[in-house]
Design a protein that fits this description.
This protein has 219 residues and is mostly helical. The protein has 11 helices and 4 strands; from the N terminus they run αααββααααααβααβ. The strands form 2 sheets. A two-stranded antiparallel sheet has the order 1-2. Strands 3-4 form a two-stranded antiparallel sheet. It binds zinc ion.
């Protein structure tokens, strides 16, 4: 038993070191439980336990049926996410909206060709609904990439923490009047065009009117 828990701790440390070293990119998918079990030479249940611990720290996030994604290279987002979770979802959405508007404004000013290409590719994949790329796609990737394009790492960390608080709340059923909605791709297209053209006022306005359209309020 002691052997078992020691192995579990070692597995957590090793997996955490792999994440921190950037072995997989943020929002990238890690190998399957079976692949990691084979690589680390441990049982699948040990991998499952390690993934659960790192998910609790906000570093990983399992997306049912799609795999497990890297959300943060350090545990700080997990702490922020836990803190956000102590507030009402309405408060969380208000702050998330403010961050999205600011991110769109900054993204239009600070956009880079590489960042724009990633955002355009994510949008095109969403629009085409290509099943072949579906599994590799992260839920909410368009918005996460847009926030990255702001070039503000603190803003990106805060945004990711709020997203993870919302997703975790929905997964636990704690936000039972809040459900994911189908994204309005034409609004993403308009927002993307405004950012590409460097029109920060228009981008901020479009982000403000689009905010929260990824969620449905059932009350
Ligand atoms: Zn959206």
């Amino acid at each position: 038993m002691a052997m078992g828990s020691e192995r579990a701790r070692d597995t957590v440390k090793r997996l955490q070191a792999d994440i921190t070293s950037g072995r997989w990119p943020i929002n990238g998918r890690i190998p399957t439980e079976a692949e990691l079990a084979a690589e680390f030479g441990v049982g699948r249940s040990t991998i499952r336990e390690a993934v659960r611990s790192l998910a609790h720290l906000g570093m990983l996030e399992p997306a049912p049926g799609r795999g497990t994604f890297v959300r943060s290279l350090n545990p700080v987002r997990g702490v922020l996410s836990d803190f956000a979770s102590t507030h009402s979802w309405r408060d969380i959405l208000d702050v998330r909206r403010a961050l999205e508007v600011q991110a769109a404004d900054l993204a239009a000013q600070r956009r880079t060709p590489e960042g724009l290409a990633k955002l355009r590719a994510a949008h095109d994949a969403d629009v085409s609904g290509d099943k072949a790329t579906e599994r590799g796609r992260t839920p909410g990737q368009f918005h996460a990439l847009l926030v990255d394009l702001s070039g503000n790492a603190l803003l990106a960390d805060l945004y990711a923490s709020l997203m993870s608080a919302l997703r975790e709340g929905m997964r636990r059923g704690a936000l039972d009047n809040l459900q994911p909605a189908v994204e309005r791709q034409e609004e993403h297209g308009a927002l993307l065009a405004a950012i590409e053209s460097g029109n920060s006022t228009l981008a901020a306005g479009l982000a403000a009117s689009h905010a929260c359209h990824d969620l449905r309020v059932l009350d």
